[in-house]
Amino acid sequence: MTARIGVVTFPGTLDDQDALRAARLAGAEAVSLWHRDKDLKQVDAVVLAGGFSYGDYLRAGAISRFSPVMETIIEQAKAGMPVLGICNGFQILTEAHLLPGAMLRNNHLHFICRDQKLRVENASTAWTSDYEQGEEIQVPLKNMDGRYVADERTLDALEAEGRVAFRYLDMNPNGSLRDIAGITNEAGNVVGLMPHPEHAVEPLVGTGRTDGLGFFTSILKKLVTA
């Protein structure tokens, strides 16, 4: 039996279907999860997809963090369940304090949409093991509130503990401190990033590359060998 990967839909989520398709392409059973349901339907891992949940009112991810489904996800993530937050999902993870720091408005105050080059800084998490440390990949990026910030002590700890998972290359598209594009928690089961790997899983669409598929094959291999 293959692993079951759940993808949460909140009001305003845009990329849930893309994430579900990416999970299927990797060989997993993709399961839709609804924000008002605490039941995770016995999934083995969860993806919080991109979009503008609840219209980004108050702050991006601030309302979604209190959705019923998040009560269970927070509990399960702390117990070791793999969770991936993409774009708005990353924002939700910071609001839920599953990842440190916060996401602010892009420093240029404009929405940005482009293909973005990244460097893999940590290839030992549940979601990145199919990459090599130092590998360069390219995936789409689209956000308005994508600037990652944290206090210096937190940033220093992330660097020292190898918890910066991805870093922007060639250009910093949103003013994120230390060019951070994604981070992981101490256990390596929770990963958040602003770029969209689910849009780079087939050569026909997105970047025309499959650089993002490794997120989903990584977690599938981890789950089926656990």
Automatic annotation (TrEMBL):
HAMAP family: PurQ. It comes from Streptomyces polyasparticus. It holds the Pfam family GATase_5. The active site is at C87 (nucleophile), H196, E198. Pathway: Purine metabolism; IMP biosynthesis via de novo pathway; 5-amino-1-(5-phospho-D-ribosyl)imidazole from N(2)-formyl-N(1)-(5-phospho-D-ribosyl)glycinamide: step 1/2. The lineage of its organism: Bacteria, Bacillati, Actinomycetota, Actinomycetes, Kitasatosporales. Its EC number is 6.3.5.3, 3.5.1.2. The gene is purQ. This is Phosphoribosylformylglycinamidine synthase subunit PurQ. Part of the phosphoribosylformylglycinamidine synthase complex involved in the purines biosynthetic pathway. Catalyzes the ATP-dependent conversion of formylglycinamide ribonucleotide (FGAR) and glutamine to yield formylglycinamidine ribonucleotide (FGAM) and glutamate. The FGAM synthase complex is composed of three subunits. PurQ produces an ammonia molecule by converting glutamine to glutamate. PurL transfers the ammonia molecule to FGAR to form FGAM in an ATP-dependent manner.
